[in-house]
Amino acid sequence: MSIPKMSDAPRLAGKRAIIYAASGAIGKAIALAFASEGAKVFLTGRNLAKVRQVAEEIAAFGGDAQAAEVDALDSQAVEHHFSTVVTSAGRVDISFNAISIPQEGIQSIALAELSVDSFMRPLTHYFQSQFITTRSAARHMVIQKSGVILMHTPEPARLGAPLVGGMGPAWAAIEGLSRALSAEVAAHGVRAVCLRTTGIPETGTIELVFGLHAKAYGMTREQFQALMESRTHRQRSTTLQELAQVAAFVASDQAAAMTGTVVNLTGGAIVD
């Protein structure tokens, strides 16, 4: 994904957004898109040096970004950072958590052969982090009576995909969390929306995951990607740019009626 230019008609002008795991492929893409649309972005991650690199890229095209070291699995650290941003910026309008976890020992293994610890890790780490950041955002946004909480899942959240271990249940739980959250906070002016894509081969996580599955099926990584893409109407995967552009739209006031829903970006892999 190339570094964007500032939008001529920014959809997120004046908005403040917190992005967790902002140095990863998805977090960075979302951060760049939000900043190019006029948002002031507060970038977090466990590796401050990498997060600062993203902030510097944003500053290079005229965007406004701040970097902080925050472990999105540490509820106290998340709450402290969120409160600090609210104090300094006045409010937080958008929250997005792009955390990922290592997939070795989780995917490409049959459920019947998977250890309990390996099955539960997506819930005790990945989903737990989503709940921690979502809860913090909801607490503050309900008070200010505005805000958007975005989440992201791939297609196994809806499909019965084989060999994904506990990731499928964790992704389904995230979509369920988004719906339940909307039912509680939408009346207070806070929206909750989940963005569902295919696996995105541009990311290091999917590059690894496709390799793990390809080995399990006795094919090359390229063959496995082609198999996955053949199941979409477009015959290709969702791109980072497509995800980021839609995220910017959904986070904007132009999508004010959207809450409690999943935005389908799977290109026909799932047909609603």
UniProtKB/TrEMBL annotation:
Superkingdom: Bacteria
Alphabetized InterPro entries for the sequence: NAD(P)-bd_dom_sf (IPR036291), SDR_fam (IPR002347)
SUPFAM superfamilies: NAD(P)-binding Rossmann-fold domains
Keywords, sorted A to Z: Oxidoreductase
Transcription regulation listed as a keyword: no
Gene3D superfamilies from the UniProt entry: NAD(P)-binding Rossmann-like Domain (3.40.50.720)
Family of this protein: Belongs to the short-chain dehydrogenases/reductases (SDR) family.
Name used for this protein in its record: Short-chain dehydrogenase
Organism: Silvimonas amylolytica
Classification lineage: Bacteria, Pseudomonadati, Pseudomonadota, Betaproteobacteria, Neisseriales
